[in-house]
Amino acid sequence: MSRATPFTVSHFRKRSFSRRGLRGYFEYRDLGIQRATRGKVVAHVIRARPAKAPHGEWHWHDCDLQFVYVLKGWALFEYEGVGKVKMKAGSCFYQPPRIRHRELKHSKDLEMIEIVSPAVFRTYSSAAPAARRSPARRSRG
Ligand SMILES: [Fe+2]
């Protein structure tokens, strides 16, 4: 008997988006990949909720893989060791596991696809990383 997951499809419906998800300022549309892969991967469309803004807190995710493709709008993120990066429609970004980051702002029409493995992972709040020091300011002693 085959243990392969049967073919699955998730069609868009008006009620496809739910408030169940990591952030209260987003809505999430599960694409059925978590169920199809028995928890190996989650894929969802994330979109901005009206009149909600990101909290901007530093955090990190305990996962093996995470990447995002922006479908509409824009979002401003900040990454430890990288700085601020504005993601726009068409941007695809890979977040290395456990990198500290935060979201600062996003447009009202933000919509993006996020793929994470494993499907269930923990998120930890974090203190802000130490500001990057320029080489000229490093102590020699
Ligand atoms: Fe995050």
Level of helix content? Answer: under 10%
Strand content: 35-45%
Q: Kindly report the CATH topology.
A: Jelly Rolls
Instruction: Tally the beta strands.
Output: 10
Secondary-structure element string: EHEEEEEEEEE
CATH superfamily: Jelly Rolls
CATH class: Mainly Beta
The description of the largest β-sheet is:
5 strands, antiparallel
Q: Can you tell me the overall shape?
A: globular
Structure, described:
The protein is mainly β and about 140 residues long. The protein has a single domain, classed as Jelly Rolls, CATH 2.60.120.10. The protein is about 5% helix and about 40% strand. Strand 5 and strand 6 form a beta hairpin. The longest helix has 4 residues. It is globular, with a radius of gyration of 17 Å. The N and C termini lie far apart (about 65 Å). Fe (ii) ion binds next to strand 3.
